[in-house]
Amino acid sequence: MNLARKNIVVTGAASGIGEALARHFVKLKANVFLADIDQPRLSLVAETLSCSYYVCDVANEENILTLVNQANTELGQIDLFCSNAGILFKGEVAPLALDDQYWMKSWCVNVMSHVYAARYVLPQMIQRQSGYFLQVISAAALLSQIGAPAYSATKSAALSFAESLAISQGHNGIKVSAACPQYVATPMLGFEDAKPLRDVKNLISADEAALRIIDGVLLEKFLILTDSDSIKFFERKCKDYDQWIIGMQRLKNKIVQETGEINLDKMYKLI
């Protein structure tokens, strides 16, 4: 896929992978429309990249509809919709540790935001017989994330939806990529975008993750991984699911022994 002059919408564009993706899309001469719930940071990124934007809560269907309408007005049409926004609640120690409101928030941001985007963008793409959905999900969809049951469950559902979208709409010329990054130095893990990343084990920068994701889009790959370990772990899981569960239980125990708690900000160092 050639991204030059393509019209692209990026959600979660105020920081992290979303900001990095938007920046590289602009470098590739794409026309980019930004969205995020964080108005101050979003406006700063938009000013830096000379892009239009809309302050959007992706968990809200009406917000997504307005985003699509504004992007269509600004760009003329949407060639690629990048659903990047996601949410993770730290401290999800057990499956029942969170109130329903947190589970529902995770569901709406991590799953329904993709559904809403497809609901309102897909018809125009089908009419043109071309279009692309880039859904930034997580390696947790393949491997689970210790200490984050709501995150893991909703990311798995998001991957399943991406698969269904690709299967059901391929004949209409619709392409789908599901990006499943593992550990990336973003604000979600306590890293500021502006700080350089040097010699940190098992972690890559948001910029590097974005470049690897874009490489996958250029090749029109469905599953895009940002590291080689994810597929190795996933293959082990598929080969012997019971043994994989045992291994994950041991890893969880190791994390508790070495850190005293399930701390998502430190876990990547122990993988």
Textual characterization of the structure:
Strands 3-2-1-4-5-6-9 form a seven-stranded parallel sheet, sandwiched between helices. The chain has a two-stranded parallel sheet with strand order 7-8. The protein is built from ten helices and nine strands. Helix 4 links the parallel strand 4 (80-83) and strand 5 (131-136). It has 271 residues and is α/β, with parallel strands linked by helices. Helix 1 (16-27) crosses helix 7, helix 3 (61-75) runs parallel beside helix 4 and helix 8 (229-239) packs across helix 9. 51% of the residues lie in helices and 14% in strands.
Features:
Rossmann fold, 9 strands, seven-stranded parallel β-sheet, 10 helices, 271 residues, alpha/beta, two-stranded parallel ribbon, 14% strand
